[in-house]
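User: quick one, sequence for these tokens?
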């Protein structure tokens, strides 16, 4: 049977270095003797030496490995490699499967999204925002909450990476900034690690580039004016708007 999680779940929830190393192990045939039993997968993953590895079919971060990290209850590349095997049922990875969007960059596309594509982007943004959730649990749940924030931000980066440069996209980005601001200021999100703040800074930088490439995008900054936000991230965009409109 296939696990509950898919390849994207693994890719968005794991840091780039661990994911790439795990993908390398999987592609080089280091995941051997795979078995599925009772809602878990087991395997021997060949590294510096053979490691006994297990991961849950429900949550790939739940498992064990006999390597150094696994012995300290931390997820390792061997566990992720086994999870990849389970998620794609042992099939080869495509090039796009291995790509992670670690930082938003400006697209070369200028096309307007049609109604269906625009609706799909909005839905994807809303789905990704669900991972950016408040932290109200006990202290031992804090790391899981931070992992969820990172996954949500990574999912959003994947969406924003492909956005065309135009007024339509600028409107989307400004609305997203305001939603993130609300999460941080009133939504109970603990961003003490700066995970969401880093994404906000990347979106602001992207909008600044939009303003340079397609100046009409500056009109999208108007909803940011005349208000004070908690973190001052809007300052540069408001200044661009004021200098252009006045």
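Assistant:
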């Amino acid at each position: 049977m296939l696990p509950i999680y898919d390849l994207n779940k693994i890719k968005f929830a794991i840091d780039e270095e661990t994911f790439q190393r795990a993908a390398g192990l999987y592609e080089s045939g280091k995941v051997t003797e795979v078995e599925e039993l009772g809602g878990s997968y087991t395997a021997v993953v060949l590294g510096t030496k053979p490691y006994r590895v297990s991961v849950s079919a429900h949550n790939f971060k739940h498992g064990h490995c006999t390597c150094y990290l696994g012995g300290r209850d931390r997820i390792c590349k061997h566990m992720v490699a086994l999870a990849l095997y389970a998620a794609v049922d042992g099939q080869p990875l495509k090039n796009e499967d291995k790509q992670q969007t670690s930082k938003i960059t400006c697209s070369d596309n200028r096309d307007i999204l049609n109604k269906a594509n625009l609706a799909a982007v909005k839905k994807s943004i809303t789905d990704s925002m669900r991972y950016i959730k408040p932290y109200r649990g006990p202290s031992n749940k804090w790391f899981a909450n931070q992992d969820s924030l990172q996954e949500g931000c990574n999912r959003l980066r994947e969406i924003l990476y492909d956005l065309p440069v135009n007024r339509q996209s600028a409107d989307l980005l400004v609305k997203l900034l305001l939603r993130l601001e609300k999460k941080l200021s009133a939504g109970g999100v603990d961003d003490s690690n700066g995970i969401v703040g880093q994404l906000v800074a990347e979106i602001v930088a992207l909008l600044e580039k939009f303003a340079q490439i397609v100046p009409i995008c500056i009109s999208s900054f108007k909803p940011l004016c005349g208000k004070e936000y908690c973190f001052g991230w809007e300052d540069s965009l408001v200044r661009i708007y004021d200098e252009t409109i006045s």
